[in-house]
Amino acid sequence: MKKDLTRIISLLNEKNHYLDKFNSINLAEIKNFNQGQFDNLEEFYHSRESILDILKYIDSELEKAYLESDSGRAPDEVGNSVPDSLELMKVQKAFAIKDSFVDRIIGQDIQILASIESAKNSILKEMQETKKNRKGLGGYKVNTFTKRLDEEV
Fold first, then answer.
1. What is the DSSP track for 44-101?
2. Domain range holding 13?
């Protein structure tokens, strides 16, 4: 049991490490987005996807470790081993840290989506203004050209 729990604690700590990296990447990119810099968007998403792939792998390893542990076995298969209270505290602490990261990341994702949506709306507004201005200029050019043709005739 102790070996199984040690493996689970190790995997939880590794997961928290990658959640911290994910958090850091988000914070850095939020700064860029707030300054209107979206040049790094593709690399940002690639980095996030890479970390998410690692997290999926760690989750699958956690599931395997749990199923192989006494906790994952049926009660009649479990030996008399009882988890150490220190180990249980480590597991609880790792889960609390994970929950904290997840809450922060969700908040950051909302900020990121809002920044992207705002930038998209600005671009659409600029495009509409450009289209409107082109129509205005086009109308002016047509009148000038028509006026010149009338003078020539």
1. HHHHHHHHHHHHHHHHHHHHHHHHHSGGGS-GGG--S----HHHHHHHHHHHHHHHHH
2. 2-116
Residues 2-49: pLDDT tens digits?
A: 778 899 999 999 999 999 999 999 999 999 999 989 999 999 999 999
Assess if residue 105 is contained within a domain: yes
Report the b/e string of 97-109 with b at 16+ CB within 10 A. beeebeebbeebe
- Say how many domains are in the chain: 1
Ramachandran bin of 73, using left for φ above 0, alpha for ψ from -120 to 50, beta for the remaining angles: beta
Q: Quick check: is 141 in a domain?
A: no
Specify whether the CB–CB gap between 92 and 10 falls below 8 A.
no
In a domain, 139, yes or no: no
pTM, to two decimals: 0.74
Q: What is the pLDDT of residues 41-95, one digit of tens each?
A: 999 999 999 999 999 999 999 999 989 886 655 444 445 456 678 888 999 999 9
Helix or strand holding residue 22 (H, E): helix 2-34
Within-domain flag for 79: yes
